[in-house]
Amino acid sequence: MKQNFKKAGRHPKIDSTVFRCSVNFNAAEHAAFQTMHEQSGVDSISAFVKMRIFGKPFKVFTVDENTRVFIDKLSALNAQYRTIGIDYDLAVKILRENFTEKKAMTALYKLERLTIELVKLNREIVSLAKEFDARWSQKSL
């Protein structure tokens, strides 16, 4: 009589990990180990340990809070520039429609001077951002 065996469940791995090792840490060593593991960005501790033992390269990403705040402020500034551009277009349109040519040209002249000052300020901000990037960026060599 033949027996029907059902092949249910998980397929066996070709090269399963059956050998396990144990490491004991004191409190300071465990804190340093946890910090290194968190900085590596690797999900599992066992993968991190394997990378460290067998010398596989891994990347460590650090986030500087000041850099993040600086980038957020620059992003907000760019959003404000877009808003100013839209308001600028609306102001020019309203000046042309509702005022005489002489009054509109006077207001446009003032608006143009302020825009030139804004462009100068923007160039200064860009140069400061490049200087910040050159000084504090953690680019790999």
In terms of topology, how is this protein built?
Blueprint: H1 27-40, H2 45-54, H3 65-98, H4 101-136
Please characterize this protein's 3D structure.
There is one protein chain. This protein has 141 residues and is an all-alpha fold. It has helices at residues 27-40, 45-54, 65-98, 101-136. The radius of gyration is 31 Å and the shape is elongated.
Task: Sum this structure up briefly.
By secondary structure, this protein is mostly helical.
Helix content: 55-70%
Radius of gyration: 31 Å
Q: How would you spell out the order of helices and strands?
A: HHHH
Number of helices: 4
Distance between termini?
Answer: 71 Å
Instruction: Give the quaternary arrangement of the chains.
Output: single chain
Mean pLDDT: 81
According to DSSP, the number of beta strands is 0
Biggest sheet architecture? none
Q: What percent strand?
A: under 5%
Parts with pLDDT < 50 across at least 5 consecutive residues: none
